[in-house]
Amino acid sequence: MQFAAAIAQGQTLPDIAAALRAGIESRFSGTADLAVLFVSPHLRAVAAELARELREEFSPGLLLGVTGEGVIGGDAEIERLPAAALLVGELPGVVFQPFAVDAPEWDALLADDERLQQRLGTGEAHRAQLLLADPFTTPIADVLPRLDQVLEAPTIGGMASAAQRPGGNVLLLNDRVLLGGAVGVGIGGAVQIEPVVAQGCRPVGEPMVVTRSEGPWVRELRRRPALEVTREAVEALSPADQELLAQNGLYVGVVIHEARASFGRGDFLVRSLMGVDQDAQALAVGDFVRPGQTIQFHVRDAASAHEDLVELLQPKAAAGPAAGALLFSCNGRGTRMFSEPHHDVRTALQAFPGLPIAGFFAMGELGPVGGKSFIHGHTASFALFRPM
Fold first, then answer.
1. What is the pLDDT of residues 40-76, one digit of tens each?
2. pLDDT of 279-298, one tens digit each?
3. Phi/psi at 41 (nearest 5 deg)?
């Protein structure tokens, strides 16, 4: 199993195509089974032609593509400039089930387990599904739990981010071009696909049990009014954490699996605190919270996000090298979050030196937490490829 990644900046199709070809050819000597292409909005009009030229050059069995606000490849993250990135891989013994879903198809597909399994699944050795979707025409909150249930494998990927309105994104599957819906591939066989989902937050305070809630409204914590408990928790924070809260807001981590004796990174699904009801002393969380669930407050800043990513990558690196990786980073990360450019990809390369990586800045990142797939914000979601 081998991969190569390349990134290219430029305004014209010939320049971009030539630079990507040269970057891949200098690092890749195998037969391409998979190619994944990421294209900035500036090159939207030529995305399909670029994909065609790369297919003619490398003859991959499968090419996926998506437009994004910025692209990631090699050791660079190019934001808000014309660029494209490409990952090419040879994956012997791996089974691919490519799929394209037009926007009107989702309702019928999600209602039919057998059809969904046939469309995306690869059989008993199904490992994961990569999903690149348009945020305006894919009901992602409905899609992810259905894929978890039917395919029993993680969904990793990102939401296209090149446009602020429907019809502005481009999704590519071989010679197909979609302006909505989703493209992706079910992957099975002789491969391990390891997700890493760094939500960019750090837990503060103590875990607390929700004792009364309604939908997204948390009304009681520890059998006391939720807002009253929250005020006390904030007052107990260090001055530095209180300053972070004042700058960036308070986040709520919801424990996915309650059976563990203690909770750490990877156990929480982090959601924004959406608002408060002063009269009812309640908190509105950006997800449904059930009575009996455990929550813990989180803070987010560049230092916390860096620490989170390092601590999640280290155990994966300790298990041995990966062959290649895809990276789906929030368009609120990059230089919007960190003082230096190229943060996420170069942090990954410190853990995995020489790892071929490509990806894009997404309008929502897909990846599992606690064994369930979710859409995230301000997150870096990786798919690491290793041979079996």
1. 999 999 999 999 999 999 999 999 999 999 999 999 9
2. 889 988 888 889 998 999 98
3. -60, -30
Contact 160, 68 (CB under 8 A): yes
Pairing mode, if any, of strands 294-300 and 357-362? Answer: unpaired
Q: Quote the CA–CA distance of 377 and 266 in Å, as a whole number.
A: 15
Backbone angles phi, psi at 314, to 5 degrees: -55, -50
Give pTM, 2 decimals.
Answer: 0.92
Residues 77-86 as b or e (16 or more Cβ within 10 Å = b): bbbeebbbbb
Cβ burial of 131 (10 Å; 0-12, 13-18, 19+) is buried
Widest distance between CA atoms in the chain: 66
Amino acid letter at 256? I
Q: What are the CA-CA distances from residue 220 to residues 41, 78, 230 (Å)? A: 45, 45, 10
The closest alpha carbon to 162, from 276, 281, 80, belongs to: 80
Backbone phi and psi for residue 170, each to the nearest 5 degrees, phi listed first: -125, 130
- The angle, 0 to 180 degrees and rounded to 10, between the axes of the packed helices 140-151 and 113-120 is 80
3-state secondary structure of 60: coil
CB count in 10 Å sphere of residue 12: 11
DSSP per-residue letters across 294-313: EEEEEEE-HHHHHHHHHHHH
Token couple for 157: 């990927």
pLDDT tens readout for residues 330-347: 999 999 999 999 999 999
pLDDT of residue 65: 97
CA distances to 203, 316, 379 from 200, rounded to whole Å, are 10, 17, 6
Domain ranges of the chain: 2-198+305-387, 201-299
